[in-house]
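S.,

Sequence below, as promised.
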Amino acid sequence: MRSPRLAAILAPGLAICLALGVSFGANAQTTTPAAPAKPATPMATTAPAPAPAPTPAPAPMAKMPMATMKMVNINTATPAELDALPQIGKARTKAIIAGRPYASTQDLVTKKVLSQGVFNKIKDKISVN
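The prediction came back faster than expected:
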């Protein structure tokens, strides 16, 4: 006894096989598959040259030990130089630049650009001349 559900599942596949000329059973004939088509362009016979090894980039100033950082003039420093100082991000960099010129480094605290705590962390790395 055949299940109607099984016939419903197999019918579309059977129709495709019949449309393609696939035979089933004892009288089925086997056919050899067609040879694959040749590519339009010849394939490369050699492997591509390996990419050159990347050269290590110099460490950013923010990741360098404080002893190796150069002094930063707060009156002439670029935003990138200021941003590289510890505890100085984009907002504080903009505030430092907006408050220029400074007569002394302590002006960063007196003009309320930096808190005393942040100033204490960078005071040995900044100058005004």
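The first strand starts at residue 72 and ends at 73.

Coffee later?
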